[in-house]
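Workshop exercise sheet. Pairs work together: one partner reads the sequence aloud, the other fills in the structure field after running the prediction. Swap roles for the next sheet.
Pair: D.N. / O.F.
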Amino acid sequence: MSLHAANGQKEMDTIDDNVSIEIKSLETSLRGKFEALYPLSSDCCIYRIPKKIRQSNEGLFTLYLVSIGPLHHGREELQAMEEHKIRYLQQFLQRTQINLKDFLIFIKNKEERLRNCYAETIPLGSQDFVEMILLDSVFLIEFLLRYSFRNVVTSGDRIFVKPSLIKDIRHDIWSVENQIPFFILEDLIELARTRMIDECYEGVFMSKLISEFSSGLCELLSIDRSLIEINFSEAKHFPDLLKRCIEPPDHELDTRNESIYYPTPPTITELHQAGVKFRVGSHNTLLDIRFDKGTLEIPKLRIKNVWFYLLNVRIFEGLHCKTNYMNDYALLLSLLVSSPKDAELLIQNGIIENKESVAASTFCQQLGNNGRMKYKKFYYTGLARDLNAYCKSPWHKWKANLKQNYFNTPWASISVSAAVILLLLTLTQTVCSIIAL
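Structure field:
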């Protein structure tokens, strides 16, 4: 035994009885906490927003009307929607011969898997948890059903007679904290379909309902709507589905950059001064930004209402995923558009859809806030390198300067051409005069 270990053992032997009792009590308490820990699971996919991010965007993440799942369950300001959940459950049961007890048993049997989907221990008892999952799941199913098929809406439905309520609920449904797993929605509607009273659920699948519900968002974010149904089976919940639809199909990183830093791309203004042309990207993914033969293609970005959705995807990606596509897109955008002048150039070229350049540049900067850079794993390394190389070429800058300052209008072109012709004539006359001598 070493001298240090021997001294440690001697100190332990000299502890008096009272202290020993305290230590044993502390040991028992800690071991009890070990046993109380909820086991970690690979099913975990629903998280609470980090405090730092929430504080800087508090209003953005505040739920408007409805809690979905346990993280905001029981909040006083959301209680008004609980009555609607019960009404929707009653109408849901009227469409199937599966009774309420069977649905409760069905969820009870999946309780452990459902709890495992949350990154924190849910304090609700089993009975309250099962009730909450049933009410929230059926509310989503019925809301999406009514959204897609308005003939299902009853005359007493107070949600669908007020468009503002639909808009607020849509916001809450996409919130990263306000989620329940897709699998339970799919399973419940499948169970209801096995013994239908009418044909309301015939041919109705969650993937189709969510596709219809997401149609406006797909247009807003330049997403091919077919990607909703294609990615539904693999998605865990709404933010995960949106992430899968936004991220590029090609998941390969540019590994040519062996340095410990990533290349910072020039700003849009700097690119313009080097003669780079800007064009609206023709590809069906927001993150597919390309540079080829002096033209930078960026998919259209509609500033209005996209901030909330893109930030939700970024937060979920940071908490759950190994990939950094949304994070890297946000960083790239904030570096390209660092001033209102940068934004104005993109607005003029139809890439950004927004009337105010100041607001557009602010949006790009805020989107990139708290972005994290993983060295050698930046998705746009190759793009940034190519843009820098183009800007460093003196020929490109000279040509752009000539075009922008001397050939920017027809009259300017005529004036420059006339001046050149006059210069050539003068030079010719001078040469002829010298020869004549």
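Discussion prompt: The chain has a mean pLDDT of 84. What would you look at next?
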